[in-house]
């Protein structure tokens, strides 16, 4: 029977739904009647999650001048929308703990994803995009469709790697084997998790960011961030080569060439701490 992205994701026994706590937090944030203390109580009930969030908020990621000691304080100074994205990022990464290194090197995989997220966040801040943390999460998610392949159809993925070894890009080899690539399975997984459609579209389009409308900037930022993270060789999700830059995207983003060196410097500076925060 022919595979398709949705059935591969929906029939998977290897990848489930996100933990209920994420949906409870999300529902509370969307509720205009919910108080900060109620949201903080939901988060604090998960000790591991609240500890990770406080570790992130007290890092150079934010560089606050005084220590943040409670989730309520974190909500006050970081903001609800931003905190939700941090919850999502750390929740997604924790979902895949325990995956055998024989299947995929998760440390390297998340290393690349975190580098991409850092670059996307930096570009989004420069572009004055609303809620830069959303772009960090897009970076975390951008190659997650490859995990769907590696965990569910490893033998077929080995065939894709064999084609890839002969030349070309890995996502092109995936299309040759499956008829679709990891961007499409990633898109299906993000939709299954009921995350924002802008995230799903950016994941789908990060190799070919030709979408129009509100999603075009998000896809373009993620496209550039992916290239930056590959060029820096931080971690790895299977692709050894730097994907080509879409010149149209570069022009549409309107970024000065001098910004690239700043992005690289900032990603380099933040990378090790970010890996420790999000993978611990």
Can you offer a commentary on this structure?
By secondary structure, this protein is mostly helical. It has a single domain, classed as Hypothetical protein af1432 (Orthogonal Bundle). The chain has 16 helices and no strands. The chain has helices spanning 5-10, 20-30, 36-44, 47-57, 71-78, 80-95, 106-126, 132-141, 144-152, 154-164, 170-178, 182-192, 197-205, 215-232, 247-253, 258-279. Helix 2 runs antiparallel to helix 3 and helix 3 crosses helix 5. The chain starts with a helix and ends with a helix. Residues 15-209 form the HDOD domain. This is HDOD domain-containing protein.
Q: How would you describe this structure in keywords?
A:
single chain; 280 residues; mainly alpha; Hypothetical protein af1432; 16 helices; 67% helix; globular
Give the SSE layout.
Layout: H1 5-10, H2 20-30, H3 36-44, H4 47-57, H5 71-78, H6 80-95, H7 106-126, H8 132-141, H9 144-152, H10 154-164, H11 170-178, H12 182-192, H13 197-205, H14 215-232, H15 247-253, H16 258-279
Can you summarize this structure?
With 280 residues, this protein is mostly helical. The chain is built from 16 helices and no strands.
Number of domains: 1
Main sheet characteristics = none
| CATH fold annotation | Hypothetical protein af1432
How many helical elements? 16
Share of β-strand residues: under 5%
The gyration radius over C-alpha positions equals 18 Å
CATH superfamily: Hypothetical protein af1432
User: Which outline best applies?
Assistant: globular
Unreliable runs: none
Helical content, roughly? 55-70%
**Content-based structural category:** mainly alpha
- In whole angstroms, the N-to-C terminal distance is 40 Å
**CATH C-level class:** Mainly Alpha
- Annotation, overall tally of beta strands: 0
Instruction: Work out the oligomeric state of the chains in this entry.
Output: single chain
